[in-house]
Amino acid sequence: MPKTDLLQGTLDLLILKILALGPNHGWGISNRIRQISREGLCASQGSLYPALHRLEMRGHIRSEMAPSENNRRARIYTLTKAGREQLETETESWEQFAASMRRVLRTT
After folding, report:
1. Measured over all CA atoms, what is the biggest interatomic distance in the chain, rounded to whole angstroms?
2. Backbone phi, then psi, for 61, in 5-degree steps?
3. pTM, full prediction
4. Most buried residue, 15, 55, 93, 102, by most Cβ within 10 Å?
């Protein structure tokens, strides 16, 4: 399956969802998106890190420096309460959008 470019606005939702599974570092978030989507989605470093910074500035995630699995220092991101609420809101919005797209695409 070819990798799909992420639609505008979906990267924040994907990051929030991955962090709802537990704290993670940037490379780990990118890797989980790729794994869970079965290689269908790929978040480039050039878009991932600005999105992480934006989410942190909005208070949806927080970060701290800590050792990673390979004992290197890495910035570990964690979902905040505000981030959980944003995840719920964005998930509902996305599901409504996807349902509308299905209706249009199934029209003959």
Report:
1. 56
2. -140, 165
3. 0.87
4. 15
Query: How many other C-beta atoms are found inside a 10 Å radius of the C-beta of residue 97?
Result: 13
- Confirm or reject CATH 3.50.30.50 for domain 10-105, answering yes or no: no
For 23-76, how does the pLDDT look when each residue is reduced to its tens digit (9 = 90+)? 999 999 999 999 999 999 998 889 999 999 999 999 999 999 998 778 889 999
Half-sphere exposure of 34 (CA within 13 A, CB side): 14
Residues 6+ apart with CB under 8 A from 20: 79, 84, 87
Domain ranges of the chain: 10-105
H helices within the chain, ranges in order? 10-20, 26-36, 45-57, 81-105
Torsion angles phi and psi, residue 63, rounded to 5: -140, 155
Residue 84 one-letter amino acid: R
